[in-house]
Amino acid sequence: MEQEDKIRKAKAEENERNRQYQLDEIKIRENARQQQEQRELELQRTRIQAQNSTAHGGNGGKEKRKYVIEIGKWKPEITDLNTFLCNFETSATALEVSGEMKALELTRCL
């Protein structure tokens, strides 16, 4: 009898570990999905900003761009660095920011 109780207890513990593992997997997938949605929304917003700035900036073909990547300041207690950099890169790509201007904007955001 005691042996059977130990076996039941071990199986119950294993089932609980498996359940917790599945819950953790669901949380990770949900977090990744939310981050992807956030990047897509940011990209869409940035594209709209880029279109608006191009449509309203008529300097006779010589348009001097002012890049302002509006993703806010990085707050490590809220957003991990990888997510922040992905959002920054997405925005910079949509605005066609490159080289030195990208570095300046990244410095400003950090």
Work out the count of structural domains. Answer: 1
What general form does the structure show? rod-shaped
Query: Any idea what the radius of gyration is?
Result: 24 Å
Largest sheet, strands/sense/barrel: none
Runs in which pLDDT lies below 50 for 5 or more consecutive residues are: 58-64
What is the chains' assembly state? Answer: single chain
* Helix count from the secondary structure assignment: 3
Quick check: average pLDDT?
80
The share of residues in extended strands comes to under 5%
| Straight-line distance between termini | 64 Å
Number of strands: 0
Q: What structural category characterises the helix and strand content?
A: mainly alpha
Task: Report the helical percentage.
Answer: over 70%
- The run of helices and strands is HHH
